[in-house]
Amino acid sequence: MLENTFCHIQGIGPRTEKRLWEADIHGWHDFLNWRQPSFGRAALNSMACSISASVAALAAGEASWFYERLKGSEHWRMFRDFKHKTAYIDIETTGLERGLSIITTIALYDGRDIRTYVNGDNLDSFIYDIGAYDLLVTYNGKSFDVPFIESFFDVRLPHAHIDLRYVLGSLGFKGGLKNVEKQFGISREELEGVDGYFAVLLWMEYEKRANRQALETLIAYNVEDVVNLEFLMHHAYNIKVRDMPFGQDLVMDVPFRPKVPYAADIDLVNSIRRRFFPDR
Predict the structure, then answer these.
(1) What is the separation of C-alpha 9 from the centre of its chain, rounded to a whole number of angstroms?
(2) Cα 70 to the chain's mean position, in Å?
(3) What percentage of the chain's residues is helix, strand, coil (to nearest 5)?
(4) Whole-angstrom Cα distance, residue 33 to residue 41?
(5) For the chain, counts of helices (H) and of strands (E)
(6) What is the reported pLDDT for 61?
(7) Greatest CA span in the chain, whole angstroms?
(8) Angstrom distance (rounded) from CA 104 to CA 28
(9) Residue pair 200/94 in contact by the 8 Å Cβ criterion
(10) CA 191 to chain centre
(11) Distance CA 94, CA 200 (A)
(12) Residue 279 in this model has a pLDDT that exceeds 80
């Protein structure tokens, strides 16, 4: 998709990009070999230099180069080219206030492996592991997950970042992650109705009673988020590219959902529901 993108180049906005596509200038190679360009010589030379720099940046795998030049609404275009260096991440916390609340668990999925991190066990390993990736995919992570992680660990995550809340919102899929999942036909089965506050109660159950089933249920819930992000990211990308004149060539296969290696304790979930949510 990036090789078909021009809107990150100075002097080319969305309308000009669309006109280029309609003139069968579908990619960087087409532009550099354009025989009858409609730009002045100086502008054309400048654009050609920018495209040559884009070719070099993509070949070098410099995700940040494109992230800094694309508008936030177009960051989704990076996904196909950096899929192999993408981490889907989600955190659970004891509250919303940075500095007062803590991170309890983090889930990371890269399309191959599922990794989990638990406060009091291996949470610090996340900062080391996340360095292996160039692109983050989250849901509402630009407002919550990433700033919380940076504050909690006193670090900066320099990664390129696609926040699916905004990508899916631009396609008409509104609401929180669980609501969006339902719009795509995703069911959480025994974890249906479990939310962020419920996750806090699971953590409290684990801490106060050393209940390992509570921890595994919390991790199962956390992991559901990240494996579903992969599914949603592929669908959002495919919907976006299908509107383009060459889009059918860029549609990606949606991968099978992996088996989550953690099991929710349904009896515990129902017990917490009865104690704290009697009207549900």
Answers:
(1) 24
(2) 16
(3) 55, 10, 35
(4) 14
(5) 12, 5
(6) 97
(7) 74
(8) 45
(9) yes
(10) 22
(11) 5
(12) no
Q: Which CATH number fits domain 80-276: 3.30.420.10, 3.30.565.10, 2.40.128.20, 1.10.10.10?
A: 3.30.420.10
Domain with CATH 3.30.420.10 in the chain: 80-276
Q: CA 201 → CA 26, 195, 211, 221, 227, distances in Å?
A: 52, 10, 12, 13, 23
CB 244 within 8 A of CB 250: yes
Q: Residue 67, SS3? A: helix
Give a three-class secondary structure readout of 133-146. CCEEEECCCCCCHH
Contact 91, 117 (CB under 8 A): no
Can you name the residues that pair with 115 across neighbouring β-strands?
108
Beta strands in 124-228 (DSSP E): 135-138, 160-163
Q: Which two three-digit tokens encode residue 257?
A: 């959902």
Q: Which two three-digit tokens encode residue 88?
A: 């889907």
Q: Which tens digit of pLDDT belongs to each residue from 33-69? A: 887 777 888 888 899 999 999 999 999 999 999 999 9
Strands 86-93 and 135-138: parallel
How many residues are listed for the chain in this entry? Answer: 280
Distance CA 115, CA 124 (A): 13
